[in-house]
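Readers outside the structure-tokenisation community will struggle with the description of the input data as it stands. I therefore recommend that a typical entry be quoted early in the introduction. An entry of this sort, consisting of the sequence and the corresponding backbone structure tokens, reads as follows:
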Amino acid sequence: MGTNTFNPHLLSPYLSVLGISGAVALLVATGLVLWYYRDSRVQSFNWYLRNWRLKQISAVACLFFVAMAASSWVILDAWGWVYLLVAFKIGTWWVRRTISQRA
């Protein structure tokens, strides 16, 4: 019987491409929201919609980067710490924004 060993480091280039493309997609989505609601006056309905969309994107971004950190740690890649740091920064931004709007 032959043994097949799987080298998890073969996934590293694919995971890197997924991380870069996901980060670019999130940045593009944020740019589109900011561009679409660029003429919104403060305290208008569109201003609230813009803030709601930005909070949604930041929540998705935080979950994405946490997932990327976990998958990077599974294959023992050093990028996991970078992804976790980005997820932490986005998460704290989201919490600060949510608390400041509730007060």
User: Anything to note?
Assistant: The radius of gyration is 18 Å. Residues 45-74 form the longest helix (30 residues).
